[in-house]
Amino acid sequence: MSRREKILLAVTLLVALYGVLSLMVFSSGNKGGNKPVPATGADQRASSREVSRLMAKIQDLEIELPRKKSLIQKIDSPWAADPFVTPGQEKTQPQAAQMADALSIETELTYSGYIFAGKRAMAMINGTEYSIGDTVLETGYRVVRITPVKVIVKKNQNTAEIFFNGE
Fold first, then answer.
1. Interval 83-94: pLDDT, tens
2. Which distant-in-sequence residues (6+ apart) come within 8 Å of 111 by Cβ?
3. CB 98 within 8 A of CB 157
4. Which of 34, 61, 96, 122 places its Cα 20 to 30 Å from the Cα of 136?
5. Mean pLDDT score of the chain, rounded to an integer?
6. Which spans in the chain are helix H?
């Protein structure tokens, strides 16, 4: 055995000896440990009072339950106004119609290819190549911007984004 191995073995034995001594000798003052103490009559009465108190709490919760159910039903019902929109930013009916039109255009058009040559970007929409400024034949929308991820088209005040479908 090399000198290094002997030193490591000696240190390991010292640590093991210290562990045994600390477990057996140094902790001798705590002989009782954490043994459970049998419950006395007073402890049993206190625990039954605690059980009674908990049962009363449960019954109170059952009484409150109809009120909570009505609150949950109110939460699930449609809201009269959106609480997260600041005043003055409410959507008007024309904006909602524009959004519906934009959604319909996204379902009509399929962005399936992107070509970038020099300073010119082209998008493949419904199997036809379009550059910025071209008008999409099927819908009358004009191509405003082309990126590898999406194409932005515009018609009057309606703007729509057509995302690349990866096909």
1. 677 666 655 545
2. 123, 124, 125, 150, 151, 162, 163, 164, 165
3. yes
4. 96
5. 76
6. 3-21, 41-76, 93-108
